[in-house]
Amino acid sequence: MLQERIEPVWLDAFEAVLRRCALQPGDTVAILCESQSRPVLVELARLAAARLGAPAFVLILPSVFGQAGEPVTRSTGASPAIQQQAPVIAALQASSLVIDCTVEGLMHAPELPAILQGNGITQPRIVYVSNEHPEALARLLPDDATEARVKAHVKRLRGAKAMRVTSAAGTDLAISLQGAVVGGNWGSTTRPGTLTHWPGGLVLGFPAAGSVNGTLVLAEGDVNLTFKRYIERAITLTIENDYVTRIDGGGVDAELLRSYFAAWGETEAYAVSHVGYGLNDAARWDSMALYDKRDFNGTELRAFAGNFLYSTGANETAGRYTRGHFDWPMRNCTVALDGDVMVDGGRVVA
Questions:
Q1: What distances in angstroms separate CA 167 from CA 101, 172, 218, 334, 345, one per listed residue?
Q2: Dihedral sign of CA atoms 340, 343, 347, 350 in order
Q3: pLDDT tens per residue across span 37-64
Q4: What is the residue-averaged pLDDT of the chain?
Q5: pLDDT at residue 76 in the model
Q6: What is the tens place of the pLDDT at every residue in 109-139?
Q7: Helix residue ranges, H only, the chain
Q8: What Rg value do the Cα atoms of the chain yield, rounded?
């Protein structure tokens, strides 16, 4: 395990990201964290803001844990720490920049729209620092090339009516993009009322209800980020009108999927959350093998160039809400938009 203490190169990385988010002297910075947040990330954020002359205050909220008998929640992107507390929301609304150091992040938190709306005087922007070891964050700084690539692919995705995903392993998915909410992330933001996450480098779509049908094959070497493990035996998922209706495959990987899906006791956990693909050339598929599970959140795996990312769980666009969530970055897939190939066998070509 790497030691989590302040290192100059990590502080330089935080400063570089805040500069890229256009932090100015005198801007008010809120650092949002919780009792289970990684302390070194909070301290690096505070020191980097101070370097740039921006006063920062730290909001520490109690971490929220599941009730007895509930499944363990991981990789949801929806921190429950705020608990709709009006004073907390008001403090974040009044800040120029919110550095989100919560464990899961605010991406899908119910309070996010109100925070981004601001208070009528100030409208914040949010950078979620993914709960990674700072060594990983320093390797994956945002850059101009990734930003330009993501913006171009967001434009292509927004203009498309359909996505088709295939693979030699047997994946064959038809995805309607009509009515989908589409976005992208490159690791920094300068626009008020927006959220980014670091590391970045991917495009995503949240399909409308009844948009996804076909077969999804999680092949050997694909990633189950909820469990932080590489797939060792192939699993075939049948998807009908957004929902996983059948799970075929033997071994522990398939059994874990069946068990965790069933633990939620609700059909929404089986439905599609979002689909997309990675565009970050600096991110690596093999990096998860080099970190202890507690040191690694997995945003790098979501962003490595050429992966197809399929996720199940909450999808506000389709009116579905659940705490169960899977993220599966998949290798060697071909992704086409309206027949034009964006990713060919796991390689970004467009």
A1: 36, 7, 10, 6, 7
A2: positive
A3: 999 999 999 999 999 999 899 999 999 9
A4: 94
A5: 75
A6: 889 999 999 999 999 999 999 999 999 999 9
A7: 8-20, 39-51, 86-93, 112-117, 134-139, 144-159, 252-263, 299-303
A8: 19
Per-residue tokens: 159: 């203009």
> CB count, 10 Å around CB of 47?
15
| Token couple for 245 | 């209706």
- Are 213 and 241 in contact, with CB atoms under 8 Å apart? yes
Q: What size, in residues, is the chain?
A: 350
Nearest to 216 by CA among 273, 171, 257: 171
Residue written as tokens 């392993």? 169
What are 239's strand-pairing partners? Answer: 214, 244
Report residue 2 CA to chain centroid gap: 24
Alpha-carbon dihedral angle through residues 146, 148, 150, 156, given to the nearest 10 degrees: -150
pLDDT bin (cut points 50, 70, 90) of residue 68 is: low
